[in-house]
């Protein structure tokens, strides 16, 4: 069989400037990968994160090598072999490898005439709903964003913290969304003692869990917080690839996996299995990414306790259609073939 491949860069403006403890983004760039067998075409997206050492330039620099590997193997159903060879030729660069992994899985499922979750034997019913993220802003703007999220029907909010005014923010969001499930993400901004103090206050507002309170470089600090925390702790920056899972189980309660950190759908599934074996709850997060990659992530939802797949929801305009997310619900059952990603 001969496969044709290609890739292109897309600019994705965000609906609102998005601020977390590390900085602000107004637009993002993804790289879209295509793999075709001449009849069906698989689509995947790379949403590189500078925090993990990637940019759209590094993605575009390694994609020719990755796609040459795909064409060399030739059979898209040889996913294990292709992904192993890609890792042998291009170590790191997880977002670039992941875009190829997603495009291949989309193509394989289309060739089989099935939605991806059915290729994996997963159940599309009773899925966790995705959270919708409220980025850092002045307190009144965060009130406005919370009101907008509630109007749009999102009932699980993820609030970015890591400021001087964290308590005021959570008080305001809770006031505006009294019924919502609220989880928070400090993106490594706190010291361990500060985290314990702040989490005590957050617990008063019925927060569900706290993501990455302290820097990943400080696992002892994470463990210190977790031992004293009034709320469950999720590891995100501390939880990158499969080999991190045993340590994550020592320092957190929830493993937040992201495709763009771990580099492949197969690695993500292995991480969920390992997380369960280590007594962790599972979560799948995302970067600011288009439906070209979010659609594939949605097919992992049956393996999750918590979903944070709002990458496309935060865009002003996504050129790709994906799995529909009405009011945050993940409507996997409506996907007919592949991941459900297509050009709008
Ligand atoms: Mg996070």
CATH topology description of the largest domain:
TIM Barrel
- The count of DSSP E runs of length 2 or more, i.e. the number of strands, is 13
> First CA to last CA: what distance?
29 Å
Output the helix-strand order: EEEHHHHEHEHEHEHEHEHHEHEEE
Q: What is the residue-averaged pLDDT?
A: 97
**Strand sequence of the main sheet, in spatial order?**
4-5-6-7-8-9-10-11
Helix content bin: 25-40%
Low-confidence stretches: none
Overall tally of domains: 2
CATH architecture field of the largest domain:
Alpha-Beta Barrel
Supply database-style keywords.
TIM Barrel, 12 helices, 2 domains, 344 residues, alpha/beta, 3-stranded antiparallel sheet, Enolase-like, domain 1, globular, 38% helix, binds magnesium ion, 8-stranded parallel sheet
Describe this structure in words.
The protein folds into 2 domains: 4-113, 2-Layer Sandwich (Enolase-like, domain 1); 118-343, TIM Barrel (Alpha-Beta Barrel), CATH 3.20.20.120. Helix content is 38%, strand content 22%. It has 12 helices and 13 strands. It has an 8-stranded parallel beta sheet. The protein has a 3-stranded antiparallel beta sheet with strand order 1-2-3. Helix 1 packs across helix 2 (79-89), helix 1 crosses helix 3 and helix 5 packs parallel to helix 6. Bound molecules: magnesium ion. Magnesium ion is lined by residues 185, 187, 211-212, 236, 285. Magnesium ion binds next to loops.
């Amino acid at each position: 069989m001969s496969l044709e491949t290609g890739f292109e860069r897309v600019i994705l403006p965000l609906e609102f400037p998005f601020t977390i403890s590390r900085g602000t983004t107004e637009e993002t760039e993804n790289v879209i990968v295509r793999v075709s067998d001449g009849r069906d075409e698989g689509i995947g997206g790379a949403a590189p994160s500078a925090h993990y050492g990637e940019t759209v330039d590094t993605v575009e620099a390694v994609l020719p090598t990755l796609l040459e590997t795909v064409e060399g193997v030739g059979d898209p159903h040889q996913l294990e072999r292709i992904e192993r060879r890609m890792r042998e030729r291009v170590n790191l660069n997880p977002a670039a490898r992941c875009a190829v992994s997603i495009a291949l899985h989309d193509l394989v499922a289309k060739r089989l005439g099935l939605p991806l979750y059915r290729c994996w034997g997963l159940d599309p019913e009773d899925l966790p709903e995705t959270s919708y993220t409220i980025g850092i802003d002045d307190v009144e703007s965060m009130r406005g964003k919370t009101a907008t999220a509630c109007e749009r029907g999102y009932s699980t909010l993820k609030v970015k913290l890591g400021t001087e005014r964290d308590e005021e923010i959570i008080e305001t969001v809770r006031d505006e969304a009294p019924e919502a499930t609220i989880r928070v993400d400090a993106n490594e901004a706190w010291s361990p003692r500060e985290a314990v103090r702040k989490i005590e206050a957050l617990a008063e507002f019925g927060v569900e869990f706290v993501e990455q309170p302290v820097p990943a470089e400080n696992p002892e600090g994470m463990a210190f917080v977790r031992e004293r925390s009034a709320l469950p702790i999720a590891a995100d920056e501390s939880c990158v690839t499969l080999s991190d899972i045993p340590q994550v189980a020592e320092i957190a309660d929830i493993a937040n996996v992201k495709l763009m950190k771990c580099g492949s759908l197969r690695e993500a599934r292995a991480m969920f299995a390992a997380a369960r074996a280590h007594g962790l709850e599972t979560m799948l997060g995302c970067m600011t990414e288009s439906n070209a990659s979010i659609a594939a992530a949605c097919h992992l939802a049956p393996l999750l306790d918590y979903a944070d797949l709002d990458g496309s929801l935060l865009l002003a305009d996504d050129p790709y259609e994906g799995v529909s997310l009405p009011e945050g619900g993940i409507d996997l059952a409506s996907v007919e073939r592949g991941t459900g990603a297509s050009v709008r």
